[in-house]
Amino acid sequence: MTDEDRSKTIKYLIGLGTNLGNKAKNIGTALLLLEKQGKILKKSHLDHTKAWGIEDQPDFLNMVILLKTLYDPFQLLKIILGIEEKLGRIRGKKWGPRKIDIDILWAEDRVINKNELIIPHPFLHKRDFVLREIIEITPNFIHPIFKKTFKELQEGQ
Prior knowledge:
By secondary structure, the protein is α+β, with helices and mostly antiparallel strands. It has a single domain (3-124), classed as Alpha-Beta Plaits. Helix content is 31%, strand content 24%. It is built from 5 helices and 7 strands. The strands form 2 sheets. Strands 1, 2, 3, 4 and 5 form a 5-stranded antiparallel β-sheet that branches. Strands 6-7 form a two-stranded antiparallel ribbon. β6 and β7 (118-119) form a beta hairpin. 25% of the residues are buried.
């Protein structure tokens, strides 16, 4: 990678979750496919959590990674949707059970509010399990809308 390429890279916080099938394998396969798209700089631990939004479903296995890539947010979204499809994600009920869910949670100082993509993730600051995982790997990153660290956002809940 040249110095020019390095200046074009974007760091993303990516959330991964699964509550169907072999959860550890689902996350592991998603990680392998994401590694082909850039460099995974950090990974949180795997976190077993209760479902959020619709609670009457199996518990989730979640984690957050810090990914550095040359892809812009819309390119990365397209790649992520392809990974989800490849791993058998069927889009059904919002917040319903799923084999894999991959979300772009944060992309440096970028704020995007389009139908197909919202960054930072609109529920990021409301989900304690996501904040815990982010703080584990990047406690001092700043939320570009609230202008607070993720640790400060969690303390304010």
